[in-house]
Amino acid sequence: MSDKIYSIPRPLVRTNQWVIVISVLLTWVSGLEWFLLVPFISGLIGLFFGFNPIIQLSKLFLRKGPGAYIPEDWGQQQFNQKIAVLCLGIGFVSFLLGWNTIGYVFTILVAVAAFVAILGFCVGCFIHYQWKQYAYRRANR
What is the pTM for the complete model shown? Predict the structure, then answer.
């Protein structure tokens, strides 16, 4: 068994979060839901193939080696990405179908979560932690 710990340098995670926030803002300002496809498709590719194009592109701009930055847990980021992809997908489809209220609700959720994560509090991490605590308590009754 491998003891290798997978992580992502924080600047790459932050770049992905900024892309989500900017894409949602561009969607709201322009009325074009197609901007949501940038983080949505990148997130899907990352989840299914382990290759997020936004993160891979932003690696080119790191000034130091990846190990020189604060690491973010890869597994936790995958969990967060699932939530983001789900919200972006529901938002995109809702806007396409003309269900603007649902579209705004889900894009607000993902944009606020991404922006709050940029500021330092990870909503997805909190949800993941609470889920793990629930599963532990349930298993140890």
Answer: 0.92
User: Tokens 């496809």 sit at which residue?
Assistant: 37
Could you read off the pLDDT of 28-75 as tens digits, one per residue?
999 999 999 999 999 999 999 999 999 999 999 999 998 899 999 999
Cα–Cα distances in Å, from 44 out to 19, 29, 72, 141? 14, 24, 19, 37
**In terms of Cα–Cα distance, which of 132, 95, 109, 102 is closest to 21?**
109
Which sign, positive or negative, has the C-alpha torsion 104, 108, 109, 111? positive
- What secondary structure, in 3-state letters, does 54-103 show? HHHHHHCCCCCCHHHCCEEEHHHHHHHHHHHHHHHHHHHHHHHCCCHHHH
Task: Using DSSP, state whether 7 is helix, strand or coil.
Answer: strand
How many CB atoms lie under 10 A from the CB of residue 40? 21
* DSSP letters spanning 9-51: EHHHHHHHHHHHHHHHHHHHHH--GGGGHHHHHHHHHHHHHS-
Which tokens hold the place of 3?
Answer: 């003891």
